[in-house]
Amino acid sequence: SGIRTGGAPLVTLNYRDSKPIYEQVKAGFRKLILSGVLATGERLPSVRELAAQLAINPNTIQRAYRELEAEGFIYSIAGKGSFAAALTEVTDRRREELLSAFDDAAAELLRLGVSEHSLTSRIHQMLEGVEL
């Protein structure tokens, strides 16, 4: 599970995108981890390597890595680097975060006077458009 060198970069940037660069880096790595392109335990490029490859400030990469680690997508080992977290841990943690945010939003909507029927029919409409 070595680092990928040479060839196309793991993450690409779109400078015309309104999203900040660090957010684009985060989104790129999230996608690589969730899709299994980066296997559990696979080493990510070092901050310096990726900053040089993308020609951006290392602080930008550092911020993206720090946030990815806080979100559970990667983990760091001092002196060794950053590595892709296990997909099951990532998906379990993300599912819990999203369910908690959903509960908070639903509770607030109910307090704002949105009916239970309105919320459930909205969920049913959404499910009709989503393949499970």
Task: Describe the largest sheet.
Answer: 2 strands, antiparallel
Q: How is the largest sheet built, in terms of strand order?
A: 1-2
Low-confidence stretches: none
Structural class: mainly alpha
Kindly state the percentage of residues in helix.
55-70%
**Average residue-wise pLDDT:** 88
How many E strands? Answer: 2
Order of helices and strands: HHHEEHH
Strand portion, in percent? Answer: 5-15%
Give a quick rundown of the structure.
The protein is mainly alpha-helical. The protein has helices at residues 21-34, 47-54, 58-70, 87-111, 116-128, and strands spanning 74-77, 81-84.
What layout of secondary structure does this protein have?
Blueprint: H1 21-34, H2 47-54, H3 58-70, E1 74-77, E2 81-84, H4 87-111, H5 116-128
Antiparallel strand pairs: 1-2
Describe the structure in your own words.
By secondary structure, the protein is mainly alpha-helical. The chain is 55% helix and 6% strand. It contains five helices and two strands; from the N terminus they run H-H-H-E-E-H-H. It has helices at residues 21-34, 47-54, 58-70, 87-111, 116-128, and strands spanning 74-77, 81-84. The protein has a two-stranded antiparallel sheet with strand order 1-2. Strand 1 (74-77) and strand 2 form a beta hairpin. Helix 1 (21-34) crosses helix 3 and helix 2 (47-54) packs across helix 3 (58-70). The protein starts with 20 loop residues before the first helix and ends with a helix.
